[in-house]
Design brief:
Number of strands: 5
Number of helices: 14
Strand order of the largest sheet: 1-2-3
CATH class of the largest domain: Alpha Beta
GO biological process, one term: tryptophanyl-tRNA aminoacylation
CATH architecture of the largest domain: 3-Layer(aba) Sandwich
Oligomer: single chain
Organism: Natronoflexus pectinivorans
Shape: globular
Family: Belongs to the class-I aminoacyl-tRNA synthetase family.
Function: Catalyzes the attachment of tryptophan to tRNA(Trp).
Subcellular location: Cytoplasm
Order of helices and strands: EHEHHEHHHHHEHEHHHHH
Length: 329
């Protein structure tokens, strides 16, 4: 059985971008593959979360993963920092990762531009830690969103490089995987870019109806088309993309036709989109509340995941150290 690995940073609640870009695929994969799904709390340290917030965020995301449908009996669900082996493998991979290639990654350049006051080494070596997360379990497939395609390519490069340097075929070369569907990138509500936690442009699975309506009604639009069959602008196409994943196909088609006829009313579009998002998220929102209140269940899931993930990671580290040349006296 092939192995799948992926994770989400606990830098806030899960949003629709996380769900459609990652979690939705997790739900399919856990039935057919040997799956490792983790909460990437090491990765979240690049944003310097307060200590009192870090555990709470991990706990909340774990509850939201479970509410979205991940099953600890089918998949290994664990917390990244419960595996110190990941940090050691990252160190070892860093020895053969080069400054130029890390500086050229799109994600690093984008973060450095947006937060010039916090261009830390963790941001620079993010692809190396991501590679360690993946190859430590010998992943064959990685369900990544479109924005992470380049970082996965870096993982493939590092795995290939390790194999070449140590004259081995130890690490499989992981492939992006979405069950044959196009990689999904859910846009934010601010008119440009993807939906993100740090960007403040997202709709969260835990948001109540009032909050969802308020966010959607504030979404960026434009002044409206002035001629029939005008190409759709980015802000409006973003709303259409959101509608394509939560609304009925005929609803989306109706508003697209209204746009092409120059008769679209953005207020009506937003109201419909908000109601469709509310209908989609409500079952998960209620499950999140129930699971988050069950401390014993969350503790049990984390413990089971840690044990299963540790068995895989410790075996990999032992074998990697031997390949590199570390020997016990």
């Amino acid at each position: 059985m092939e192995t799948v690995v992926s994770g989400i940073r606990p830098t806030g609640n899960l949003h629709l971008g996380n769900y459609f870009g990652a979690v939705k695929n997790f739900l399919k994969m856990q039935n057919d593959f040997n799956c490792y799904f983790f909460i990437a709390d090491y990765h979240s340290l690049t944003t310097h979360p307060a200590p009192e917030d870090l555990h709470g965020n991990v706990r909340q995301v774990l509850a939201e993963y479970l509410a979205a449908g991940l099953d600890p009996e089918k998949a290994t669900i664990y917390i990244q920092s419960d595996l110190p082996e990941v940090a050691e493998l990252t160190l070892l991979l860093n020895m053969n990762a080069y400054l130029g290639e890390l500086e050229r990654t799109t994600s690093f350049k984008e973060k450095a531009r947006k937060q010039p006051e916090n261009v830390n080494a963790g941001l620079l070596t993010y692809p190396v830690l991501m590679a360690a997360d993946i190859i430590i379990h010998h992943a064959n497939k990685v369900p990544v969103g479109k924005d992470q395609e380049q970082n996965l390519e870096m993982t493939r490069k590092f795995a290939n490089r390790f194999n070449r340097i140590y004259d081995t075929e130890y690490f499989p070369i992981p492939q992006p995987f979405n069950f044959g569907e196009a990689l999904v990138k859910i846009p934010g509500l601010d008119g440009t870019g993807k939906m993100g936690k740090s960007e403040g442009n997202g709709i969260y699975l835990i948001d109540d109806p009032k909050v969802i309506r308020k966010k959607v009604m504030k979404a960026v639009t434009d002044s409206g088309p002035t001629e029939p069959n005008t190409p759709v602008t980015e802000p409006i196409n973003n709303l259409f993309t959101l509608m394509s994943v939560v609304s009925k196909p005929e609803t989306l088609e109706f508003f697209k036709e209204e746009y092409s006829k120059c008769s679209i009313r953005y207020g009506d579009l937003k109201k419909q989109l908000a109601e469709d998002i509310i209908i989609f998220t409500e079952p998960m929102r209620e499950k999140i509340k129930a699971i988050a209140a069950d401390d014993a269940y969350l503790r049990k899931v984390a413990e089971i995941g840690r044990e299963k993930a540790h068995a895989s990671a410790s075996k990999t580290l032992k074998e990697v150290r031997e390949l590199i040349g570390f020997r016990s006296f």
